Amino acid sequence: MMENAHASAVDLPAALLCIPHRTLMNWVAQLREDGPDSFFRIASPSKPRVMSAEVGAQCAGLLAQGRGVSEVARRAGINDYMCSTRRRNAALE
Questions:
Q1: CA–CA separation, 56 vs 44, rounded Å?
Q2: Which terminus, N or C, of the chain has the lesser number of Cβ atoms within 10 Å?
Q3: Domains of the chain: which residue ranges?
Q4: Per-residue b/e over 10-29, b at no fewer than 16 CB within 10 Å?
């Protein structure tokens, strides 16, 4: 309403919007300068899963051969924590 000059900021009661007048004015300025997209963050593209089924099977096979966690993690290209978690989960199954 304000942007189209149908109302001014003083005409809008603060209780109706439940926001301070200065905040409203900042938002209107942001809308005017940067457009409506400035109010929303663009979602970052998701990264592919590190522990895929193939990597899990490779880790399980190397661990079954008696290799150490750090060696298995290095060969699979994952960190030690992921490998030890896989080992712990395999022991629970």
A1: 26
A2: C
A3: 1-42, 53-92
A4: eeeeeeeeeeeeeeeeeeee
List pLDDT tens digits, range 30-88. 999 999 888 888 877 777 667 778 888 888 888 888 888 888 888 888 888 877 776 77
Question: What token pair was written down for 87?
Answer: 């080992």
Name the packing angle between helices 53-64 and 80-92 (round to 10°).
80
Largest interatomic CA distance in the chain:
76
Q: Which two tokens stand for residue 10?
A: 């003083």
Amino acid 4 reads N
Residue of 51, 35, 54 whose CA lies nearest to 88: 51
